[in-house]
Amino acid sequence: MSRIEVTEKIIAAKVAKGLKWADVAAEVGLSKEWVTAGCLGQMTFDDAQAATLARIFDLTEAETQWLKVVPYKGSLPGTAPTDPLIYRFHELVQVYGTTFKALIHEEFGDGIMSAIDFRMDLQREPDPKGDRVSITMSGKFLPYKSY
User: In which residue ranges of the chain is CATH 1.10.260.40 found?
Assistant: First the structure.
């Protein structure tokens, strides 16, 4: 058994039960963004969170243990994603990555935006010309230090 197999079981159970990630997250007591990332294999759950997910997704004890193992983050296969939605994020970074970098450095100095001390909020934004996806990402600025 592997974490990938547990992720696949979680997705299959979610579909079979007709669950929404927001409802799963509400039971866990965390944001839908973070819980979804964890259920898809990118975050580590504590004992209580893993137990809640085990109940929701009918996981065995052995499967539940995988939810508590630190994953290999950013583990999408290949160099450029082929899924159209994920590829658009890849494209967004290719097109605007240098702009993000230039503006962050101009505003904050030499450093990075943390993906560890990080928050994200994804919402549907009604628009008469077609609904929009609104994603707010907030990461702590971490300056490079001299040594």
Answer: 3-66
**Any catalytic annotation for residue 55?**
no
- Token pair, residue 111, equals 């450093």
Of 8, 91, 119, 134, the catalytic one is 91
Q: Catalytic: 88?
A: yes
Contact 68, 47 (CB under 8 A): yes
Catalytic annotation present for 3: no
| pLDDT, mean of residues 28-33 | 95
**CATH architecture, domain defined by 84-143:** 2-Layer Sandwich (3.30)
What average pLDDT does the segment 73-88 reach?
80
Q: What is the pLDDT of residues 31-76, one digit of tens each?
A: 999 999 999 998 999 999 999 999 999 999 999 999 999 988 776 6
Which amino acid, 140?
A: K
Weakest-pLDDT range from 15-29, 82-96, 100-114, 122-136: 82-96
Of 8, 55, 75, 88, catalytic: 88
Instruction: Tell me whether residue 103 is exposed, middle or buried, using C-beta atoms within 10 angstroms of its C-beta: 0 to 12, 13 to 18, 19 or more.
Output: exposed
What CATH architecture does domain 3-66 belong to? Answer: Orthogonal Bundle (1.10)
